[in-house]
Records
---
Amino acid sequence: MSNFISTEEVSPFPALSTLDIERLAELYLGELAPEALVAPTPIDVIGLIENGLQECDIFVTPATAQELPDQYAATDPEDLCGDGSIQVMLREELWDQLPYGGRQANLARSTVIHEGGHCFLHVPVVRQRLKTKSTLLNRRVRRDQLKPFVDPEWQAFTFAGCFLMPRRTLEMLGEISDADVADIYEVSEVFAKAHLKRLKIGAYATL
């Protein structure tokens, strides 16, 4: 997951609204973790890495700080293996914390699903652009000059929120605190608050 810095340069992608992303996240949840649509519960991210994502030809592996000096994780959009698979690298210090819970594990969980958003939303677009030698491949724009809906980082961040904290189960909770939502879904309180505000749920329904 790229650092959330407004001056970072990225390639614009086809526009997706929050509702578009919600629908896509729920579609993938129905395939990969249907139990998460029944009741408020944390996603089994380790299980996804070991099974569900691999069934989608997405392979998450640990990487050293030397391999990822400025990022928590990275997704390679190119089909280097020639089999359609997607390779995702996660910093090994986050990888090692996944089984234990707590702040670092929560960051690791969110980062994996953020990269999943890139895999589902952006890799197919990049591969099509590579195939057609599109000039869009070389277009880079500062994120603070992009509308959020075409910003791949905003899209992936929104996807991660919708996947980890689906609206369907959030609405079962009523107006509980951001901290309670974070505890239930095993994400950071900052992430929970941003997601609730984006969906206008609970205490943020009238904002």
Note: The CA atoms of residues 82 and 120 lie 18 Å apart.
---
Amino acid sequence: MMKVKHIISLQPGYVLVEEPASFEVIWEEQKSRLNEIAAICGEGNTNKVLILGPETKVHLSVIELLLLAKGIAKLDLRVALVVNTDLSSELESFFEGIASNRGSPMQFFKHEKDARGWLNI
């Protein structure tokens, strides 16, 4: 069976990342994924990213979460996540805080409408 990947598309004023059902976040894939998102942001001259995902399993250690958040901050992205993850609320807050404290606002949302409002899109 073929593994379904995320879909990244340039929208007016932002980049949309759509994750498939049962998406798994794996450390080895994150650098190329971030580079792909950053390249599309560059094409659209935006740093706003909306990530949508129904069920997301995060296979990252606390150190990998820290490194991923730092990587997002280096790219100067503003990220709204409307994903149902298996992370605890404490780990979600930790992830948000690392990126936000380094100049890349990031926030988890329950509803797409709220995420779009936060991104001003």
Note: The CA atoms of residues 7 and 34 lie 13 Å apart.
---
Amino acid sequence: MTDLRQATSWLLLGLLTVVGAGAAVLGVSQAPKNAPLQQAVDNTLAAPNFSQVITETTPQAKRTDYLVWEAPDKLGGYVQSGDKRTYVYIIGSTEYQSLTVPAGTPSDHLVFYKQQSQAPAAAVDLTHHYLQFVKSATHVVQNGNTYAFSLTQGGQTGQFEVTVNGPYVSELNLTVASASVQLVISQVGTSPPVALPSGAKVIQAPTGLTPSTGGS
């Protein structure tokens, strides 16, 4: 299966895609007044934690990543492709990645390989990645609490639509050619702590081992 991250230069380079238990519950509370777009971006990136669900679609495949970000250096959860899941976490300077397992596999059946992290959590987090594009936006068109703009990178033009809910960004949609990304942000400031699933087994990754990924 073609990796969705190869579809366009707009998509994340792709080290990890992750989320902890319960993070798929969407529930950003709407505040009485919505912040301006750039302020909402800053507020979201400055939050102590948030949950995110990212759906990436190309003509070849579709995958959904469930992630929790916890400042300053934790990211954890799973990526799901079809009925398979791969769990990946960055906690400080250590990376943990599971073998790919069927969805619904009990946590005490998970086996994680650990190794030195290849990148800090903030460099891998998808919300940090995509909201940087919003900070570069010009000629933004506002319609209520939704903002639309386009950016060109590497000869490709991405069409963005960003929704602000209260003080935070709650959704970002990106379309590039035949590929698309939907990022939904929720539980800002109230997400569960990032931690390995209860009962999981952790072993040191053998030299040269590349664990399976959810997109394979």
Note: Helices lie at 37-45, 121-124, 126-135.
---
Amino acid sequence: MLNSFDWLRLCRTGAELLATLRFLEREPDLFPAGGEIGPPRSALDGPCKRCWVYPRLSSPRRSFCPSCQAVMARAGRLGNLSRQSIVIWSHVNQLPKHLWAREGFYKKHILGSYVHGQHHFLLMMRRRKLKPWLQELLLYHGPNLKGLIQVLPTSGAKKLTAMGELLCRAMHHEARFSMDQLRVRFFSAPYQLLMPHNRDRKGLLTFEVTDFLSLLEMAAVFRTILLPDEQQSLYDLLNLENPAEEQFYWGRFMGLLNQEARDMLSAWRIRQWPHNRVKLLYELVEYVAFYQTD
């Protein structure tokens, strides 16, 4: 029979994962701990076409068991929310205390959570809540919390990699890391979990937690000071292959910016950044909110 984590691994999309997390928390009786299994697959009948364990609903033209039918029906209403969300899979030496209490940030901003044993937990939250969540985690636990936090994107129905498979691959990757410090692995797209070594070699994947928070801070400042059109123009400019052409357009581009934006780019020396660092900055912009300015 299927346990709670089995139901999570069955999820194909982020919406299904969020629906399953909410059912596990609010209506756990929906998922049977025992009961009969479905009939063998045949031309006329068979088990649920999603879990392949339990019998299908008896009503005509139904292909799923009651549990899978409920998850898929709820997932249909959570698609927009899941596309704005990320999945956090963590292997740590101690579970955050607020995770149990469901208070503070966890009560207000966590969309769904699951605790797997004494050292693993899973969270879903909106992408732009990643930075405040990490800040609160370090505020309450500081250097005592060690392990690996993996930031995963949600997968859609048209993606080749299912959400459940992403979770399994994340579990597989965690075995490489010791519990000597708290690290963050940042995946911006589902396919990156299939080939993480390419991203790791470029310095785009694994970070010490305070370094990753610093990168998020830079992304928040960048997003606040530069307008979207200015961000795109800067990205195109930094990716020009002809140095003479870049030099020509750089002066014109800086002349279009306000003084605050010019000071920021000059202080960062962003023209000397390697392309991989520029790419990471633009990826992280989608994971931070604007700073409130007067």
Note: The chain has three domains: 4-75, 84-201, 217-285.
